[in-house]
Amino acid sequence: MRLSSFFMPTLKETPAEAQIVSHRLMLRAGMIRQSSAGIYSWLPLGFRVLKRIEQIVREEQDAHGAQELLMPTIQSADLWRESGRYDDYGKEMLRITDRHERDMLYGPTNEELITDIFRHSVRSYRQLPQILYHIQWKFRDEVRPRFGVMRGREFLMKDGYSFDIDKDAARRSYNRHFVSYLRTFARMGLKAIPMRAETGPIGGDLSHEFIILAETGESEVFCDRALVERDVLQEGIDYAGDLQPLVDSWTEPYAATEDMHDSALYEALPAERRVQARGIEVGHIFYFGTKYSAPMGAVVVGPDGQDVPVEMGSYGIGVSRLVGAIIEANHDDAGIVWPDAVAPFRAGIINLKPEDGDCTAMAETLHGRLRSAGVETLYDDRPERAGAKFATMDLIGLPWAVTVGPRGAKAGTVELKRRATGEKEELSLDAAIARLV
Ligand code: ATP
Ligand code: MG
Ligand code: MG
Ligand code: MG
C-alpha cells in the first residue's frame, strides 16, 4: 500500500478531548473518528487492527470447539420480558419502537436471543454440549463513555454461550473458555490475568474477569506475581483432555479485583510477590446455570426421558476495547508499538528521496518483492522531509521499518529498524527481505 494514496488522516496536534494515551494515539494516527459520544468510525488503519484481533479471537474459539454464527443487533423486547431483564436493565439499554409500535432494542448482550434459538432447535441431551458464539456490535448507553474505544457506547464484542446437560459438563465448557481466553490474549502480546469476579446482573455462581495491567485501568487489582510471569503459550493444551488441573493452577494463586479483594489473603503473600496495579477488563466468563433456560423454557429430554433445563454459561471478549488496551500496554513517547500479531502492516518502507532515481527504483523493487512474498507493507512514497516520514512511521508503530536512502541505494543496502527496540541494521536488499518474510 502506498502512503500517498492510503486514507490515513493523521493529526499533528494532540487532541484535547483525549484523556488517555491510547485514545490520543488512535486519533493522531488516523485510526478512528468519533461520530457522536462513544460511537466511532473505524478508518482503514484502525479497521485493519480490529480485523486482526477479531481473527485471533475467532481462531482460538474455533480451536476449542465453539461454532460461529451471527445474530442481529436489533432484538425484540418480548424475549427480554420473558427473562425479566427488560425492566431490570435500565438506562444502559437503547430502546427503539418500530413503525408498528413494537418495542425493540439494540442488543447490549445476547443471552435471551441465543436461548430462544436454542429452545427452538435442540430437543435431546444427545445434541449437547453446544457452544455458539458471534462477533457482533453491541450498544450500551454508558453513563460516561470515555477513553475512546475502551468505553464506547457502540462496541464490538465476541460473545459466546454454552449449553450443557449438567453442572459437570457445564464446568468443562467453562474451562475450555478459560483456557482459550488465556491463549487468545497471549497471542496478542498481552498478559491477561484471570481474576475471580462478582457475577453481577447476569447472576450465577462462577465467574472470572480477564484483566490486563495498565496505569490507566479503571479498576484496582491485586495479584500474585507468579501469574504475571507465567506464559501460557509455552504450555501444551489438549482440549480433549481434562483441563481442570490447568485451570486450578491458574486460579490458586491470589488474584482479585477490588470488589472481591481479601486483604488478609493478599498480605499473606511474601512482599516481593504482591502486585497491586490498575487493570483493564478485556474478557469476562460466567457460569450461570439455569438462570435463562428455566424461565425461558430451554429444556432438553434427559437420559431418563424427563425434560431438564440446560446449564448455561456466557463468555465475552471486548474486541474493540482490545485495540485501545493493546496500545495502553505497547507504546512509547514516539507512538504506538504494535505487537507483530495485530499490526496493521508488518513493515513500513521509507523512501528518503523520491526524487532520486536510484532510491525510488530500490524502494519500488522492495515494495513489489515484499508484496509478492505476501508481506503487507505501507510504502511512504510521499515527497516529505525525512524527519516527518520517520515520525509518521514511529507514530503508527509498524513492527519493522525499512529505509532506502541515496547512499544505500548506490551500495545496494537498506536500513532495517525494529520499532520495539529501536535497533537498526544495515543489510543488503535480499537479507532485509529474508528477514521480513
Ligand atoms: P465494564 O466493567 O468495563 O463496564 P462489563 O463488565 O459491563 O464491562 P461485560 O458485560 O462483561 O462488560 O462484557 C464483556 C466484555 O465487553 C468486557 O469484558 C469488555 O471487554 C467489553 N465491554 C463492555 N463494555 C464495553 C464498552 N462500553 N466499550 C467497549 N468494550 C466494552
Ligand atoms: Mg459495564
Ligand atoms: Mg465489568
Ligand atoms: Mg464484565
UniProtKB/TrEMBL annotation:
Q: Which residues form a coiled coil?
A: none
The GO terms describing molecular function are:
proline-tRNA ligase activity
Question: Entry's CDD domains?
Answer: ProRS_anticodon_short, ProRS_core_prok
Which Pfam families does the record associate with it? Answer: HGTP_anticodon (PF03129), tRNA-synt_2b (PF00587)
Provide the protein's localization: Cytoplasm
Q: Does the keyword Metal-binding apply?
A: no
Tell me the protein family, please: Belongs to the class-II aminoacyl-tRNA synthetase family. ProS type 2 subfamily.
What name does the UniProt record give this protein? Proline--tRNA ligase
Q: Which organism is it from?
A: Marinibaculum pumilum
